[in-house]
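Subject: Sanity check before I submit

Could someone independently write out the structure tokens for this chain? I want to compare against mine line by line before I put it in a report. The sequence has 122 residues.
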Amino acid sequence: QVNLVESGGGSVQAGGSLRLSCAASGSIFGPNIMGWYRQVPGEQRELVADITTRGRTNYADSVKGRFTISRDNAKNTMYLQMNTLKPEDTGAYYCNIKAIRVAVESPYYDYWGQGTQVTVSS
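---
Independent answer below. Compare away.
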């Protein structure tokens, strides 16, 4: 069992910044990927950015150059620095952690946080 605690969401004017945090606790073993996903009502949840244990990152094209994902492995905490926010960034942001299966005996997990709302106004 892994618990994810998110913080940092809120309302901001276009051009502003927010920093989201996600703290993971529980049975976390081996390499994994932590990521932020955004969901707008009526639409499917989509990847915003993710980062592996080793620090390899991946970003949605819409946020490249504006958002920065990072993690502190010692604290099992992930961050998303969101700069130059746009109204289209609005949505519920969900934290996720999933195992990278490197062997048959490797434990697998895939957990979600409860989400935190980000609202960007014009």
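---
OP: Matches mine. For the report I'm noting this point. The chain has a mean pLDDT of 95.
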